[in-house]
């Protein structure tokens, strides 16, 4: 029996108005789902995944959701977004059609399929809005459970704002830490490791997180018995239940069709999380899939008649109707009137969205048709051009591709005619105008981007000697950072108590506290997630992954979430997270990989910085904290004990991003490398000079972005030869570096011999010093590779070694 929610502050009439408003939202959302599926099946939309069957619990969640709160959700939360006033009918359909106008489709301007929602955290100039004055949704992603790690960070930010003082502009991001991070997920996706990793981490950290599991018993066609032990996620999570004097969760269960109980449950959950910073799991069961998983298939194929009948009876919208009638909130006739009005509004909103989408394209279609007809008048290919024009004109609902394809095909016909120039100009202008709708905002396009930071050199005492351990440069620079930026914090495995495994944070936790310099468990994905979520809320986190190889545990989060965030919100959200790790040249298979090719090709949208020493690394951290973009900084693992000069201006010197450094000038060949391998390159260059080969050595410093001043090609113009030395596998980062130099910088114009690479072997490095020597480039390998290249040029001067 559904219980009526009692509230002494409401009269029955007030209560009735509120319930009818909720029902109206639910039925509008349902009609959007039903009509949305039809739009897909008729071909107007590409694919549809809808929130039907989950409407009523989302209404309850919306009621407990307050300004300043954040959602990190599942791609079925359309009713919630409508209920908090952040999604209209027209916007819903604009998303379905993939409208590339951010004003029409504010979630992603057509860059994600419908059902992926976001709010705008940034002003037009890239500065933060006051997030406490709005209801916030972090931008959804499709990978199942991928929203979970970010959720942890969104919740942890409230804890930081409540307990850390002195954070600038904190009032724009938090009301004394009273915000909740609300997560949603489908029951099948709780089988993912990211779900369990996040659940465990939130229980340890005790953060204000409310996690809703929408349980309709299926993951596409696969029943819960194949997904979850005991077919019940809350049952198997009982061990996380918070008890006296322990950390853990409050675990609540509620039926997804019980409107009154849902509201009471969500109010209870919000009260626990908001006041006490205790995470809550709400298992919302007995939900349905009225149209199946998505528009790509029918659920009648995998559900039997009994299940389908039960779903019709216990559809949450139907049950809400029955409940309203039972307690005299509305008569059947009043509900029918609401339903009819909802159908009308949804149809009107759909039509408005379609017209807004198609009319600008139709104008472009007419423009090209007219141009082609003009060109045809004086062309010997008149009939063919008019056929192209007629075919394009006959397309009732054109897309931009069809317009541009037509123009480009006609261009081939008029290459030697007067019409070529005007058509070519039209194509160039149309492509430039259109391409930005699909390719902008991969990186920051505001004045806060990495290129806005000017280089500042380290300042040294006149008598400074190279007698300081590199790790002390980092330590003292981090000390300056934490003093200068109260919003900065760092966390990772062994980062706190012992000051990281290489002592680059020695004494920092004692000085700045356990919240700002924190140890975490062995859980790389949620370390990244902590950073993403906190960066989304205005903090400046540095997430430490202990070794470069361990980054593979987090590469999916980096690739699918962080790297795409600014792009998929068209610059309306940002997460300027700094990821700190260390790598290169450590011996053994599992700690010495250099998967740079994998990394740079998976995380476009994140800068990848590869300093050769700790002064460079410290300068990168200082630069990044003055801009608003995410970056990965890979410190040299064998550089912490190497000696460097001690700077005087900690926290102030800045390594320029995207700028190479020439370590040695030379005339015979250009050697390009980065990181620890440069020390081997420098040693080989000394030895090569003894046999008359003068090498120019360039330290890339930064792989993304790459050599923005094109200094490498300037070097090649002088030496006419190129060798790229890299400890990644063959065809890894070296292939990317060559592509940038040869293709982007036109380096081939200056080469007198084949550009070459020297890389590690295709396998992981074997254990021990011999394993390293025979697995990765050595100084002897570099010497002999360069010598061989010069032997090809002048065999008499450089006779063959072998």
From TrEMBL:
Residues 468-642 form the Transketolase-like pyrimidine-binding domain. Keywords: Oxidoreductase, Thiamine pyrophosphate. One of its GO terms (molecular function) is branched-chain 2-oxo acid dehydrogenase activity. InterPro entries: DH_E1 (IPR001017), THDP-binding (IPR029061), Transketo_C/PFOR_II (IPR009014), Transketolase-like_Pyr-bd (IPR005475), Transketolase_C (IPR033248). Its cofactor is thiamine diphosphate. The keyword Oxidoreductase applies. It is an enzyme of class 1 (oxidoreductase). E1 component of the 2-oxoglutarate dehydrogenase (OGDH) complex which catalyzes the decarboxylation of 2-oxoglutarate, the first step in the conversion of 2-oxoglutarate to succinyl-CoA and CO(2). This is 3-methyl-2-oxobutanoate dehydrogenase (2-methylpropanoyl-transferring).
